[in-house]
């Protein structure tokens, strides 16, 4: 079996959060494995290899998915990912500033693997991302995806 490149798909519309996330992952030598989608529509384009992602060859090992985004929010993205048999098992981590119980419950009902609230403190945020990246893109073995 051919080894899959362990990519992380970050889906977040906040450039500062994306920059901090990539910096934190770089400290764990995972930055070269990161793809960024600025909203839910782009995330689905990446997974379906269309739009600006039509030449992508690999699926992500994990998706770090924000909830509050324009065009399509993270809850709808998760709903669509879980309704597609190709992506049903793909690990999805909700990384959001939402403390709303309804978002937490809906995320788990739809099959999120984890729900992480973005810490307000930058140092805590960076540490949380390091741990997430190291586990999900380093240690965890993702389900096989047919390329």
TL;DR?
The protein is α/β, with parallel strands linked by helices and 147 residues long. The chain is built from five helices and five strands; from the N terminus they run βαβαβαβαβα. Helix content is 39%, strand content 16%.
Question: What features would you highlight for this structure?
Answer:
16% strand, 5 helices, 5 strands, 147 residues, 39% helix
Characterization of this structure:
- There is one protein chain.
- α2 (40-47) runs parallel beside α3 (74-83).
- α4 (101-109) links the parallel β4 (92-96) and β5 (114-117).
- The protein is built from five helices and five strands.
- Strands 2-1-3-4-5 form a five-stranded parallel beta sheet, sandwiched between helices.
- With 147 residues, it is α/β, with parallel strands linked by helices.
List the helices and strands and how they pair.
Layout: E1 7-11, H1 15-27, E2 34-37, H2 40-47, E3 60-65, H3 74-83, E4 92-96, H4 101-109, E5 114-117, H5 122-139
Parallel strand pairs: 1-2, 1-3, 3-4, 4-5
